[in-house]
């Protein structure tokens, strides 16, 4: 087989030698032209055959085969090594070694297992907590590697051998599901690169935080295995002769090499790893994908498919969470919503003169859209509202609203608040009638809603308010600038050494990042950001009190034991501006918050709380570490106003 270079060299030589023939033998021109045309056509075809996009067609088959081989190896490891040890061995070290080998075997599967089979993957490597489907009243027991980890660490108890064997056999059954599902999965090159980039984001947000390795703390070597796996898959799409491939492959190797030198989970410099390796990897992988003509998906997601990194200014799209496409934002709708947000007409009820309270009465822009109170007063001033006022900054980047997650959309959220007798005691129907009589408002609604029928309906009000809230994307802190490698105008470091140490604690020893997920620092689970979680942490009525706050949280909506005292995980962004803290506003300072978590939450304080999802073990943070942690959280304060709505944000 000729190479493309050999054929081009030969064709060039033929063209030069035939110039003489053309001059001396005119009759042969037609034949020679036909010959040269055929040669040129063959060159074009061969070039296409050698093109990256053409090679990529066969790469999918290699991806499919690689996953199948890794899955077979995982099954073999369990069958021939881990399960026999579990059934007979009395050596804790042998069990741990076999278990860690299984974890690394899973990491080779994770890019596509988590991408294509999330439900099964939860039973392979999900949290060791029951899964609750509240609306169906269903509770499913956990299973998989994290459940097994609790049986192997910190030390294996032979009395629980039968439990360990049972869990391993459950794991085997789930791996059989992978085998069946994978056979029926149709891969495309776009899906492959999508899965690879999401795995990099998964490493950043979940992997290196220890989210799935809470006891064995092998997150760092597992991240190295993940990157090695991604490098293997990438090798199917290029070679040293492919433009851009060598540099990307070298970066993967350097990243993996760096991780293999890191043996201490608590001392690992996550800030350096993300900024120096992970962010460049995700960015260059996207660039290489586009270079070989494999375009990212053109679909609306929470995290944009063309985001170079998790920390891009416009990485997130709030319209992903809108109920339907007709309710997506536009600039005029945002401005209308902003005006309505500060208008007490929404709390007017039956009072034609107008109401007493607007949305901005409690969600004050100069306080990061909070009010600085533990709990605000009820509308009549005789009591207090049930819960603390949460910030509205980045409120649109979550799949459910309120501390008890009772509303799936911002449209429903505003309706709930407006009609609540303690908060606004208004009526959307009544407000619509009053707004209809206002010519300026009527014109604004006409401009904001293209299919407006000249009649203001409650949904128009709800959607305008929601559009304004969706515009409050604020990811502009010094931490974000650090991750974007944006320098300081004064020449000073964007983050101090103490703040960087605080971030590493947040994502490591202090375990904050296993619930307040990077980069939003709320409970919306990366890297797909489709589910917002709640936790039971045991908030007391006051700091250091051994009495839990009586608010039942999600249990008030769904009487399931696992949801008793469960509340949404809120954002930590702008936390320096949003005191007091917790759903009941019990903690006045960040120092009190850190002390609470350092003790192991309510259970650590001595509150009887069997369903607590927060680990009850003490964190053993030193005074210096607590100070660094607080310094970092203060660095999450936004340095400018929220990103305004633009077509790039849609």
TrEMBL record:
Residues 497-637 form the Cytochrome c domain. The chain crosses the membrane at residues 31-49. The keyword Transferase does not apply. Its main location: other. GO terms for cellular component: cell envelope. SUPFAM superfamilies: Cytochrome c. One of its GO terms (molecular function) is metal ion binding. It is found in: Cell envelope. InterPro entries: Cyt_c-like_dom, Cyt_c-like_dom_sf, Cytochrome_c_Peroxidase/MauG, Di-haem_cyt_c_peroxidsae, Imelysin_sf. The keyword Membrane applies. Keywords: Heme, Iron, Membrane, Metal-binding, Oxidoreductase, Peroxidase, Signal, Transmembrane, Transmembrane helix. This is Cytochrome C peroxidase. It comes from Larkinella rosea.
């Amino acid at each position: 087989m000729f190479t493309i270079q050999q054929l081009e060299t030969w064709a060039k030589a033929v063209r030069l030698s035939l110039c003489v023939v053309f001059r001396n033998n005119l009759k042969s021109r037609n034949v020679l032209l036909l010959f040269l045309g055929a040669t040129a056509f063959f060159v074009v075809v061969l070039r296409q055959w050698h093109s990256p996009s053409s090679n990529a067609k066969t790469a999918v088959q290699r991806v499919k085969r690689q996953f199948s081989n890794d899955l077979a190896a995982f099954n073999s490891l369990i069958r021939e090594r881990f399960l026999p040890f579990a059934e007979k061995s009395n050596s804790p070290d042998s069990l741990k070694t076999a278990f860690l080998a299984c974890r690394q075997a899973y990491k080779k599967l994770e890019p596509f297992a988590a991408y294509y089979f999330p439900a099964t993957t939860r039973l392979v490597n999900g949290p060791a907590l029951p899964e609750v489907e509240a609306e169906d009243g269903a509770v499913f027991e956990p299973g998989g590697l994290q459940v097994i980890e609790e049986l192997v660490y910190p030390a294996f108890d032979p009395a629980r051998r039968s439990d360990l064997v049972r869990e391993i056999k459950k794991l085997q059954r789930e791996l059989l599901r992978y085998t069946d599902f994978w056979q029926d999965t149709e891969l495309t090159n776009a899906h492959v690169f999508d899965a690879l980039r999401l795995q990099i984001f998964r490493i950043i947000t979940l992997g290196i935080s220890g989210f799935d390795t809470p006891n064995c703390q092998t997150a760092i070597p597992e991240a190295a295995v993940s990157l090695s796996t991604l490098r293997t898959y990438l090798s199917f799409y290029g070679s040293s002769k492919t433009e851009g491939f060598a540099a990307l492959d070298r970066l993967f190797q350097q990243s993996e090499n760096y991780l293999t030198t890191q043996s201490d989970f608590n001392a690992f410099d996550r800030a350096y790893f993300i900024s120096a390796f992970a962010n460049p990897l995700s960015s260059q992988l996207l660039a290489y994908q586009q270079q070989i003509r494999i375009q990212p998906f053109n679909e609306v997601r929470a995290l944009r498919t063309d985001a170079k990194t998790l920390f891009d200014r416009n990485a997130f799209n709030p319209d992903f969470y809108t109920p339907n496409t007709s309710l997506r934002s536009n600039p005029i709708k945002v401005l209308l919503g902003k005006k309505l947000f500060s208008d007490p007409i929404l709390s007017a009820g039956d009072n034609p003169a107008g109401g007493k309270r607007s949305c901005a009465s409690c969600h004050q822009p100069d306080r990061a859209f909070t009010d600085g109170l533990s709990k605000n007063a009820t509308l009549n001033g005789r009591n207090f509202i049930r819960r603390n006022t949460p910030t509205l900054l980045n409120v649109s980047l979550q799949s459910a609203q309120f501390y008890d997650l009772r509303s799936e959309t911002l449209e429903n959220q505003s309706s709930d608040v407006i009609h609540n007798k303690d908060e606004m005691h208004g009526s959307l129907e009544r407000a619509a009638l009053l707004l209809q009589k206002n010519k300026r408002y009527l014109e604004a609604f006409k401009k904001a809603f293209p299919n407006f029928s000249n009649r203001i309906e409650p949904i128009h009000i709800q959607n305008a308010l929601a559009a304004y809230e969706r515009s409050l994307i604020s990811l502009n802190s010094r931490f974000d600038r650090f991750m974007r490698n944006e320098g300081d105008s004064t020449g000073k470091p964007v983050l101090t050494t103490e703040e960087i140490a605080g971030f590493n604690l947040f994502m490591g020893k202090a375990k904050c990042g296993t619930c307040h997920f990077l980069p939003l620092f709320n409970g919306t689970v990366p890297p797909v950001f489709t589910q917002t979680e709640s936790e039971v942490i045991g908030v007391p009525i006051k700091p250091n009190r051994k009495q839990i706050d009586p608010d039942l949280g999600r249990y008030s909506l769904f009487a399931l034991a696992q949801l008793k005292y469960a509340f949404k995980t809120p954002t930590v962004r702008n936390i320096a501006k949003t005191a007091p803290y917790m759903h009941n506003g019990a903690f006045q300072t960040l120092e009190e918050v850190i002390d609470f978590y350092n003790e192991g939450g309510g259970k650590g304080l001595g509150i009887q709380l069997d369903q607590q999802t927060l680990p009850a073990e003490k964190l053993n943070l030193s005074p210096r570490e607590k100070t660094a942690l607080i310094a970092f959280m203060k660095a999450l304060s936004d340095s400018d106003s929220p990103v305004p709505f633009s077509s790039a944000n849609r």
